[in-house]
Amino acid sequence: MYQYTSFDRQFVHQRAAQFRDQLTRNLAGELADDDFRPLRLQNGWYIQRHAPMLRVAVPYGELSSRQLRQLARIAREFDRGFGHFTTRQNLQYNWIPLPKSADVMDLLAEVDMHGIQTSGNCIRNITSDAFAGIAPDEIVDPRPYCEILRQWSTLHPEFAFLPRKFKIAVSGSVEDRAAIAWHDVGLQLVKNDADEVGFKVYVGGGMGRTPIIGTVTNAFVPWQEILVYLEAVVRVYNRYGRRDNLYKARIKILVKAEGQKFVDAVNAEFTKILEQDVDGREHIIPVSELERVSHHFQDPNGVHPATSAFDPNRTGPAPAAFLRWLERNVHGHRVPGYRAVTLSLKRAGQAPGDATDEQMEAAAQLADRYSLGELRVSHDQNLVLPWVREADLFSVWHAAKEASFATPNIGLLTDMIACPGGDFCALANARSIPVAASITERFDDIDALYDIGDIDVHMSGCMNSCGHHHTGHIGILGVDKDGSEWYQISVAGSDGSTLSGAAVPGKVIGPSFSADEVPDVIEALIDVYLRQRQADEHFIDTARRLGVPAFRAAADAVRRDTAAPAAKPAVVAEAAEAL
Amino acid sequence: MSAAPHMNFIQAAQDPWRAAVGEYGPLPSPPVAAHSLLTLEQWQAVRDQWPAGLPVGLTLANTAEVEDLAEDLPRFALVALQFPKWTDGRAYSQARVLRARLRYAGEVRATGDVVVDMLPLLQRTGFDAVQLRDGQVEASARRALAIVSEHYQGDVHQTRPLFSRVPA
User: Fold this and answer.
1) What is d(CA A279, CA A281) in angstroms, rounded to the nearest whole number?
2) What is the 3-state secondary structure (H, E, C) of A344-366?
3) Is A247 part of the contact surface with chain B (CB cutoff 8 Å)?
4) ipTM surpassing 0.95
5) Is residue A256 packed enough to be buried (19+ CB in 10 Å), middle (13-18) or exposed (0-12)?
6) What is the pLDDT at residue A314?
7) What ranges do the domains of chain A cover?
8) Which of A12, A125, A324, A563 is the most exposed place for a label (fewest CB within 10 A)?
9) For B87, which residue in chain A has the nearest alpha carbon?
10) Domain segments of chain B as ranges
């Protein structure tokens, strides 16, 4: 993984010092709260329901055991003993008092971490495939490019105050595990006929109130020119993106409104940068730089490819639970003799993506013993051990069970994506955690979960879509009506993976449900699938084939609180709003 | 890196530049006077008559296309860009294009809602003068310029990104 240079280290320490200066001025009354807000946001500090929330950047999801131990320490000493891993591969704390924030930034800087651009209307922390560099289906390792993009976007002086937030995701494999078409910019690494590396560029995807899939603005930007191309995209957005209406300010609205004119403007700007600007060619990436950065992402010392001859039943029949765990939580690897192991953060009694300080310590220890000290944070809010020897799998399973990470549910219904929701988030319209808990309780039978098979259930507590409800095969969205919580359910959304099909937002199945009804509705939708599935259909296939009506009827049949006309909230299906 | 570029903190009382405004806003035909700070419309009204060598400045909305000014730019001693709200970042792009593309060498001044913590961004995108919003502390602004000493990407002064800089 990337190792900080003395430059990087000086940079994060100076950034922490800058934040301390701002905090000091704020606490002294010199810097007004309103003016401090955008500054603290760009360091990851939100003011939330109970206390500030801190979002720590985990660049493209790579984490060392040393860093995770420091995150555990911060959870223990400054928070209430836990953190929440997010769909953007970051970690959030919920209980750190603002006056302590500068101390926490210093502790993060000690382990080469920070909260830079994890919030605010700027280029956010770049996300990628949790299996980058180890996936068998990889075309090009995206991590060196992610790092080069991280450096380019970090404290970019021109793009710190864009119309709205700006998210970039990079994928280098056949399978898209980073939902790139749903990002402001999605970058797919490709090779052309001459075997040269470049990027297929999607611009203007996004969730929120108006879900839109990104448009391909360029089918092949040579890797050397990607910073120049992105500079052109973001400059066009900075100059022409709407600033009059918060809900129309994302680049997706500009791309949708302007269409080909947007693409033309980007191309014109790209050409001008290269041909007219004093420094226009300075940001063409030299081979030497790609090589320097790539050097950081060579396989770590200690990786010894071995003949892949793993047989769980070699010394007699393996326990059924171990086989299940192998099937769901263990993944193929580029290096023979190795596997990637997902540590499930989806288990009864804890919110999806949450880990206590003790669990973080345990995961760090697992990484040290079995994964050369490295971990990944996945888009699905789990942790991954990227370097597990096949010979160690049985031991890892035992150790993971011990630490509560071995729920064999990866890709199954209870491997839900969920935001923290109204329990913590000041933006949320409704709570996510109790609803996720009630669904997890309802589907506690592992055999039933296996029978249901692969399915993405995604839940967001509000339209900001942190829980990616638009992309759920079943999507759940918290909405507020007259001060109480309701949940809008959609079906057949897709993140763009092979299983889910081309990226598309789910369709709302009708008026919202009460919290108590949600588990019944989910069960009713699953029943439709179980009764009507054909041959090898997954839930998503059946959902696409049957369409909304079959699911709407089944869901309506289990309404209780929302069955009587008087109690029925007239919540408009916002997700279906016309573009 | 070479010595930090100069940043001029404008004190309104000592500032020679004057907008040509009357009771009803910008004068449609501004008088010819040294250090007039004109709007684009005013400049268009007087550009053909404006004497060479008489200092004139232009104040530009952050929606203006700076590239349309390429021909006239050498005539301006000052271009004042605007921040109607400090979190509206359009003028950073204008400044960058003025310097890097159009090679504008006169003063580029930040006006409007300009606050202390914008200083590093302003400097790096090519502003060399700022008129801080009332109540901002100049000492803090000067300090803000010096906290982060070097950056990854190039800018108007350090045109090379880190990866192509010669190590010190």
Assistant:
1) 6
2) CCCCCCCCCCEEEHHHHHHHHHH
3) no
4) yes
5) middle
6) 85
7) 6-110, 134-288, 320-402, 417-576
8) A563
9) A161
10) 8-164
